[in-house]
Amino acid sequence: MLVFSVIASALAPGLALMTYFYLKDKYDQEPLHVVIKMFLLGFLIVIPVLILQRGMMLWLGDGPVVESLLISAGVEEVLKWFVLYHLIYNHVEFDEPYDSILYATAISLGFATVENILYAWYSQAAFGPMLIRALLPVSGHAMFGVIMGYYIGRAKFSGHETRRKFLLLSLFLPWMYHGIYDLILNVLTHSWIWFIIPLMVLLWYGGMGKITRANNRSPFRMIKREEEVKT
């Protein structure tokens, strides 16, 4: 029973947020099996992430700046971006700007869910720490995914002259925010809460704006409006 409770509490935040982002797709919802596939791929990339992080830690050391910006944020965001770009960018189902936000958050939340399960299993955390995990790292990964997906969408549906810029932003910005997040936790060990909360508010506020803008750029928006007028 204890094992079931630990796993359930670790799974719940990721699944709840995944459902939320799936329902935010206003005009042309993605096939559920593709979303689940990306969520499960987020599970699987934990393995290469751990291997690369271990190798980089032995090579570069584990100082807080290097660990936060390169070993943690760098490896995780680069691998998530790699999967998203190579599996989704030219996918037939990627036909509106919000789609890449959904798929990026699916990968990110799959990854964060495995992290949460490992944390819960090895720490045997009580409800309070698990709630903090739900509100901070899991939702943080979701917001990094929103940022990545938003700029992947901008690259896909923008002109050729701006495509490279948006692709670079789709990797650099989540990497930067993830690095700042980890750096706060690693350096400000006693006062981190006073910096993490404003950062999370900023990420959620900006993320919700990006979701709205992506939905507003959907080519299916006018079609749906015309259908609503006819009915």
From TrEMBL:
Keyword Hydrolase among UniProt keywords: yes
Enzyme class, first EC level, given as a word: hydrolase
Chief location bin: membrane
Transmembrane spans: 6-23, 35-56, 134-153, 165-185, 191-208
UniProt membrane topology term: Multi-pass membrane protein
Family matches, as Pfam families: PrsW-protease
E.C. code: 3.4.-.-
GO biological process, alphabetically ordered: proteolysis
Listed InterPro entries: Peptidase_PrsW_arch/bac, PrsW
GO MF term set: metallopeptidase activity
Key words, A-Z: Cell membrane, Hydrolase, Membrane, Metalloprotease, Protease, Transmembrane, Transmembrane helix
GO CC annotation: plasma membrane
Entry's localization field: Cell membrane
Family: Belongs to the protease PrsW family.
Biological function: Involved in the degradation of specific anti-sigma factors.
PANTHER family referenced in this protein's UniProt entry, alphabetically: PROTEASE PRSW
Name of the protein in question: Protease PrsW
Species this protein is from: Paenibacillus lemnae
